[in-house]
Fold:
Amino acid sequence: MCWIVLAAFGLGGCRSTADAVVGTGPHGDLAGFVWLTGSWVMVDGDGSSEEHWTRPAGGTMLGLNRTIVRGRTVAWEFLRIQSTPHGIVYLASPGGRSPATPFGLVDSGARRATFENPDHDFPQRIIYERRGNELRVRIEGVENDQPKSQEWSWRRSSLAAMP
Structure:
């Protein structure tokens, strides 16, 4: 079973947020991201993964991801989506790492958002998509000169129902 989650991006090539990759795509407030708000969970055998997102407010959305295997936290990550004067940026901080790795918004729709950072080692692209009560996330890029991708699928949940 593969329990490498968004928190395990392998951020050896991190850049500072001062050098943030800002998307050339949609600009403005984050109201269009309300579909991401809430708690999401995936349970598989002896492990679980959860991701939580606050509602858009004050130009930010805050997220948290945690993976538990056999009763132990094996990965966690702070996440942020932020509206800037130059565009919307997704910031990933696996294990609380600072500075966060920026990914600029390059495409979005009613329930879909694609963020990219072509200068990052892996991944270079993060895609969120909501389908009903399911949240799908796919990371893509090139690692060791080979195309690579990983996908996750979480179901909407409440904090009280978390495993």
Summary: Confidence is low (pLDDT under 50) at residues 1-26.
